[in-house]
Amino acid sequence: MPQPNGNNNHSDDYPPNPLANLKCECCGDTKVLGVCSTIMPYSAAFCELCLRMYAQPTFIIDAIIMTSNYDKENVHEGVRQSVTAFVDGGYMSFDDYFDRNVEKLKELDLENAVKFDERDELDKHAFEEYTFDDDDEVEGDDDIESDLGDDDDKQQPR
Ligand SMILES: [Zn+2]
Question: Cα–Cα 20 to 30 A to 84, which of 55, 57, 111, 144?
Answer without folding.
Answer: 111
